[in-house]
Design goal:
By secondary structure, this protein is α/β, with parallel strands linked by helices. Helices cover 30% and strands 25% of the residues. The protein has helices at residues 7-28, 30-39, 60-65, 99-116, 134-146, 158-168, 177-189, 211-221, 333-340, 376-390; strands at 79-85, 93-98, 123-126, 149-151, 172-175, 201-205, 224-231, 236-242, 249-252, 257-262, 276-282, 293-299, 301-302, 312-314, 318-319, 324-326, 329-331, 346-355, 362-369, 396-400. The strands form 5 sheets. It has a 9-stranded mixed beta sheet with strand order 4-3-5-6-7-8-9-14-13. The longest helix has 22 residues, at 7-28. The relative contact order is 0.12. Bound molecules: 5'-O-[hydroxy(phenylacetyl)phosphoryl]adenosine.
């Protein structure tokens, strides 16, 4: 049953696994036990897959309330790896994996690479960041599990990326789609033709991108560019993969994740095909399973492609919250706000302007000074430094005179544009 068997067998497997994971969190995670009790549900209420709708959602708030390890459903001695992603304020969102989880993660990543057309024996240039971010290590172990040779370059130092691609002649590139275009720019800057490079396949994700961007990558780099979706709270990368023969939607690895689409406002379940927010339940995670996790990602469910039992998700079109992804780093406005509070020379009236003039995101922070006088440029420099240290992104800060930023009912005004401009 390589991809999960036929539809009926798949649903039976999902139900069996769902019952086990609900029982596991009920038994081992006090936070889940309390939430279930408050909602008046117990593991025995789950008889059919549809019964999942009786159970409460999990959100980033739950992860924050139990920071750092309160959502773990395994003993700390059983945890083999800890990753983290952005939280909504100063504290990151933490995820833990048992050795078993790491094995399944590597299998799902290997399955994704195979689905994209990657083969054992090929060379993989991994330009996703290594570290707390799940992208680099997630792909790394998946490529190794497949039997490919991984080149663990990580992100940044673009001139060196080009040199390594030219010298090592990798077959597959893993990166964020915007970074792939930055690599293409660097080829051009060095007077080299990226279309002539050895890369034949790219797996891209971690940020929203468009068909136009895909065409640009494919044309400029002479490769097939496919979409890959995932998020730390659920696994990291490894949740859904686009097949080359069924472009436009990504097959969800439904033997490990139960997908629902809900109305982002009301939380009401929507029918297959309707656009809304993706909600995911992990079916096999031991370290930190999540039940009905609100991803905040907007998409819709699409029927399986011929011959494959698993349903698909359309390309993610945006988010139902105000999270931005700045050069692959997830940033919440509340994180920036928390940093602004650290410099008493500014007040928390600010505007965030996210732009993508070429391929790379730029985040401008316009913030009001507390006083008319004072060296605004020096304050701006300090705030830029604080944001870099605490949030991890480079921004351009502009300090403006008190009272100059528009207020709507005295609240903070935020301007975003989440969509890549291409
Ligand atoms: O970005 C995991 C990942 C790494 C996926 C590498 C694909 C490739 P987080 O840092 O937790 O995890 O960010 C997850 O990124 O909720 C989406 O908003 C966004 N995202 C991830 N993949 C895509 C995609 C990784 N293919 C958040 N299209 C998610 C659009 C994506 N958005």
């Amino acid at each position: 049953m390589r991809d999960g068997g036929d539809g009926g067998a798949l649903r039976a497997l999902q139900l069996e696994r769902l019952k086990a994971v609900i029982a596991r969190v009920h038994e081992r995670v006090p936070h889940y036990r309390e939430k279930f009790a408050a909602a008046g549900v117990a593991p025995r209420d789950l008889r059919r897959l549809e019964d999942i709708e009786k159970f409460p959602f999990t959100t980033k708030e739950d992860l924050r309330a139990t920071y750092p390890f309160g959502m773990f459903a395994a003993q700390m001695e059983e945890i083999a790896r800890i990753h983290a992603s952005s939280g909504t304020t100063g504290k990151p969102t933490v995820v833990g994996y048992t050795r078993g989880d790491l094995g399944i993660w590597a299998e799902l990543m290997a399955r994704s690479i195979r689905a994209a057309g990657g083969k054992p024996g090929e060379k993989v240039h991994n330009a996703l960041g290594y570290g707390l971010f799940t992208g680099g290590l997630g792909y790394h172990y998946g490529a190794e599990h497949l039997g490919a040779a991984v080149i663990p370059v990580s992100g940044g130092a673009t001139a060196r990326q080009v040199q390594l691609i030219n010298d090592f002649r990798p077959d597959i590139l893993m990166a964020t789609p915007s970074y792939a275009l930055t690599i293409a720019d660097e080829f051009a800057r060095q007077g080299l033709d990226a279309r002539a490079c050895s890369l034949r396949l790219g797996m891209f994700g971690a940020e929203p991108w468009s068909e136009t961007m895909r065409m640009e990558i494919e044309q400029r780099m002479g490769m097939t560019a496919l979409d890959h979706y995932g998020l730390s709270e659920v696994m990291g990368p490894g949740v859904a993969q686009e097949f080359p023969d069924a472009r436009g939607a990504l097959t969800i690895w439904e033997d490990h994740f139960l997908a629902e689409i809900v109305d982002p406002e009301t939380g009401r379940a929507l029918a297959e095909g309707e656009a809304g927010e993706l909600v995911l339940t992990t079916l096999t995670k031991e370290g930190m399973p999540v039940i009905r996790y609100r991803t905040r990602d907007l998409t819709r469910l699409v029927p399986p492609a011929a011959e494959r039992p698993m349903r698909r998700m359309a390309r993610v079109t945006g988010r139902s919250d105000d999270m931005m992804i700045v050069r692959g780093v997830n940033v919440f406005p509340t994180q920036i706000e928390a940093v602004l509070a650290k410099d008493e020379r500014v007040v928390p009236h600010y505007r965030l302007e996210l732009r993508r003039p070429e391929h790379l995101d730029e985040l401008d922070v316009v913030v009001e000074a507390r006083a008319e006088d004072g060296d605004h440029a020096a304050i701006a420099e300090n705030v830029e430094r604080l944001i870099k240290v605490f949030v991890g992104v480079t921004t351009r800060v502009q300090v403006v005179a008190p009272g100059t930023i528009a207020r709507s009912e005295g609240k903070v005004v935020r301007i975003f544009d989440f969509r890549p401009k291409d």
